[in-house]
Amino acid sequence: RGLPFKFIGEDSHLDALKTDEKRDLFGGDRCAGELAPLLAASRGLLDLSGCDSHFDFPLMALQTLSCGRPVVGLESDLKREFLSDKGVFWITDTISFNQLSVDEKLDLISKSLDNLDSSFENIDSESLHKQVNRFHPAGFYGHLKRLKSGLSKSG
Questions:
Q1: Is the pLDDT assigned to residue 41 strictly greater than 60?
Q2: N or C: which end of the chain has fewer CB within 10 A?
C-alpha cells in the first residue's frame, strides 16, 4: 500500500523480522505518555487483537480513539460493547479470520484500510475523543452522581 506503519505493543514474536534496516518499524511496549503522541500523530490504528480469541479487551483501540484517530479492527461482541461504529472500520469476517489464507486476510484488511482512507477527511477527531471519555473515571463518577440526584428528586 505504500503507507508508513509501525508495530506497537509486545513484539517479541516478531524478532525474526527485526533487521537493522527495519528496526524503526518496531515501537515495542509504550507507556501512555509515550503512546499518546504517537497515536495522535498517526493516520489510525490497525488492531488485529482478537485473532486468537474474541475476548481481548480493546484497550489500544480506546486509546487511539481517545487521541482522535480512527481504528480498523477485527469485529467481536466484546469490542462492540466498548466501541461504536463512529471512527471504527470493522473487519467483519472475523469468525473465520484464522482459517483464511494470508492473501484473503490481506484483502479484508486492505478493504477496511481503504474505507478508512476514503472517510478520513470527514472524521471528527473531537467526537472520537468524546465517545471514549465516558470510560474515564471522573466522568463515570459524575454520571453516577447525576443518576443518584435524579433518583432522590423523583422519589
A1: yes
A2: C
101: Cβ contacts below 8 Å, ≥ 6 apart: none
Residue 140's pLDDT is what? 66
What pLDDT score was predicted for residue 154? 59
Indicate the residue type of 68: G
pLDDT recorded at residue 31: 76
**Chain segment 61-82, per-residue pLDDT in tens:** 988 999 999 999 888 888 888 8
SS (H, E, C) 100-145: CCHHHHHHHHHHHHHHHHHHHHHCCHHHHHHHHHCCCHHHHHHHHH
Quick check: helix, strand or coil at residue 96? coil
Q: Which amino acid is at 53?
A: S
Nearest of 155, 68, 73 to residue 112 by alpha carbon: 73
What strand order describes the sheet that includes 71-74?
45-47, 71-74, 88-91
